[in-house]
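S., here's the first fold you wanted:
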Amino acid sequence: MENVTIRVPRDAAKIIEKLEQAGYEAYAVGGCVRDSLLGREPGDWDITTSASPEEVKAIFRRTIDTGIEHGTVTVMENHVGYEVTTYRVDGVYEDGRHPSSVTFTRNLKEDLLRRDFTINAMAYNPRTGIVDLYDGMADLERGCIRCVGVPEERFTEDALRILRALRFASQLGFEIEGETLAAMKKLAPRLSLVSAERVRVELVKLLGGRCPEMLVTAYETGVTDVILPEWNSMITTPQKNPHHCFDVGRHTIVTIQAIHKEPGYLAADAHDRCVYDMTMLLHDAGKPICLTTEPNGKQHFRGHPKAGAEVAREVLRRLKFDNDTINTVTLLVRYHDCRFDFKPDADFDRTMRRIVNRVGLENMHYLFPVMRADIEGQHPDYRERGLARVAEMEEAFARIVREKQCVSIKTLAVGGRDLIALGFAPGPSLGDALGRLLQLVLDAPALNERETLLDAARKILHEEM
C-alpha cells in the first residue's frame, strides 16, 4: 500500500503538512483518492484530520465555517477552498438521510467506517501512503461497487446512497456487488425520504455516465418505482412496429448512448449536457400513453411527442429543475420527431422555416443531435434514410441562417410600434396581426420588407373595421 504514490496538489499537500507539523494526523480522503488511483482528475480535494475544527482554525489564517457543527472547516489557499473535516463518528440517522449528531474522534478507522462504499473509504498521506482498511483498491481493480460494512446498515442510514451506487456504477462502468445490490432492492422504498433536488443531482450524473444502462438496474431494484415511475411504463412498453427493434425503455438507453457520441454533446458544458441527457431520457415518455394496436398486432404511438412534452414538464418540475432546463427540454421533446413534418410535395425550406419558428433559433443546435440520436435507436433498416433527412434539414437551416431569413416576429421588418402608427390598438389584435404577417414571411421570405408588410398590415386593419 505504501508504495502507491498519488500526486497531491501543492496547496492540499501544504495543508496536510501544516496539520502534521502541529502534531495531528491528516489525509486526503474519499473521491479524490479514488479518482487519482483510477487515473482521473479529481474535481476537488477533501482532507480529513484528527484535529478538531477549533484546532484547524487556530492553525490556518483564512478559514470558513462551512459545516463546523459536522466538523468541516474550509481552509483557503490561493483563493481555492479545501474542506478539512475532523475524524468523526455519526450518530443515529433519524430521518434516513442525516445523522442526528456527530462525535469527533482521533481514530481514522472509525471515520472511514462511516463512509458509503469501499472505493470512497480510502485515505492518502504523501508521507505515509495509502490507508485502505476495507479493500477499496481491490474493488477498484475488480470494478466493483461495495458498501463499507453491512450494506443494509449503510442504506438505512442514508437512502441517498442507493442512488449513489447506481451513479458510481454508471460513471465508472463498475458492477454493483451482490449483497449491496440486494440491500438496494430491499431498501429502495426509503428513497421517498430523499429530497427531489438530491434525486435530480444523482439522476443527471447517472445519465451522463459511461453506462446509462444502469437505468435498467434502477428499474430492477425498484428505485424508479420511487423516483421515476414514468421510466417503469417506458421499459415495459413494447414497440411492435417496423421502425423499431427495442422496447421504449431500451430504445431510450441506446439514444442516450448515441447522444454521448455527438460532437455537440462532447463540446457542451454541464448545463447543455444535462439538457441533452434529459431530452433523450424523456423524448418518448409519451409513448405508453399513446400506444394503439391494430388487429394485426402492429403498434402505433400517434401524438406521442406532444404527450411526451407534457410528461417531461411534469417530471422536470417534480425534480426541481430550473425553468430554463424545463422549457428547453420540453420543447425538444415536443419537436424531436419533426422530420416527419415534411410532405413529399412540400416546399422544403418553407417547412424548415416553420420548424425553426416553433423550436426557436437559439435551440436548433440541440435539435439535430437529438434527432440523430433518436434515429440511432431505431431499426437499422430505417437509419440511413432518417439520417439523410436530418442532413437535408441541417442544410436548409444553414441556408436560412446564411440568408438571414425571417423566422420570428422579432425579425420581421416591421414591429408593434409600426402597426400602432397605422391605427392598431395595443393588445391581442396587434399580436394577431404580427402573427399573420409572420405567416406571410415564413411562406415567402422575400416579403419581409417594410413597405410590403405595411401594405399587408393596412389590409388586415381594413378587415377588422
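And the second, which I think is the more interesting of the pair:
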Amino acid sequence: MSSSNNVWFVPATETDSTASVAEKLRILLGRFGFSGLIAEGSVAQVKMHFGERGNRGYVRPELVRTITDAIRSRGGRAAVSDTNTLYRGLRTNCNDHLRLARRHGFTDESVGGVVEIPDDKNASLAASVPVSGRFIASAKVLRRYIDAPLLVGLAHFKGHMVTGFGGALKNIGMGCATRGGKLAQHAAVAPFIIKKKCIGCGACRDVCPADAITIINGTAHLDAAKCIGCASCIAACGNDSAELDWRGGAGSLPEKMVEYAAAVLRSPGKKLFVNVALRITAECDCLAKDDPRIAPDVGLLVASDPVAIDQASYDLVCTKAGGFDPFRKAHPERDPLRQLDYAERMSLGKRNYELVTV
C-alpha cells in the first residue's frame, strides 16, 4: 500500500493506444495497492466527468473499466457517476446527461458498472454537511459520495477558466455538489462586459442559462441580478470581452470549492484519486468544443492524497512544458496554486510528495 505522501506515476501519451494506456493504469493501480481498499460486497463510487457534447477531453471508458475490473475482482461492485450542472447544455438534467454519457461510450456494459446521474431534486439523495469554513457553513452534496465505503475520484487534469486548473480537488469539490451547492460556490462570481472589446455577436447571450444577457445597440449587457455566476459567457466569448472581478467575489471560488471538497473528503470512507494528464487543454471538459492543447501529454497518476496528486500533476505538466507554467499563461489573472494552498491549510492533504515512477 502507498504511503500517504506517495504519488504513483506512469508516463503516457495520447498517441499510445487506448489499450496500452488502460494496461498502464492497471499496473499503476497494482503497484499502489488498490485492491487493499476494496471491501467484498461493497459498492464503490467512481466519480468522473462524462464530457459535454462536442468535447473530446474526457477520460475514456476503457480507463474506467480498468478501475471497475479491479473492484469486481475483489468482490466489490462499482457505480460510475457525475452530477448535473448549472450552465446551459446537455448535462443540466438527468435524462439528457445520461444519454450524452452513453453517446460518449459510457454504458453499464462498457465500464463494468452502473452508470448513473443522481437527481438532486430528490431530497433523499442529497445531504447538507457542516463545514464551518470561511465561506461555506454547510455544503450541499450528493449523499452517495459521503456514504461510499470507497470513493474513487477519476479526473482529467486540465486548465480551468476560474481555478487555473482542474484536477482531483475540483472533481470532488465542484463535482460532488448538488446544483444548489454549485450555485453557492459560484455566488458573487458575476462577470462583467468590457464594452470596447464587445462586438455584439450574441455568443454569450446564447449560452447564458439565466437569460441574464441581452444585446442592446450592438453591445452585450449583463443583468447582475439574474446572473448565477456560472461563467459560461466567458468561455463562449471569442473576443475576451467577458471577464470576472478577481478582486471581488470571483477570487473566493477556489476556496469555496475546497471547502466543498472538505465536506466529502472528511467522510469516513476510503478515498483514491486518479489524475489523467493527457489532452491537457486550457479549459475544462464542460465546454461544448474540443479545446486546443496547452501542454504536452504527461501520463497517469494515482494517490490517496488529493492535494499531493494535484501538486504532482501540476509540477509534471510544467516540467514537460519546458519549465514554464501553461496554466498561468492561459489564465494570467488566476493563481492555480491557490486551491492547493488552501486545501493544505484545511488539512485535506500535503503539497509535498514523493513521486514513484512505474
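Why I say that: Residues 91 and 97 are 4 Å apart (CA to CA). The longest helix spans residues 18-32.

Talk tomorrow,
H.
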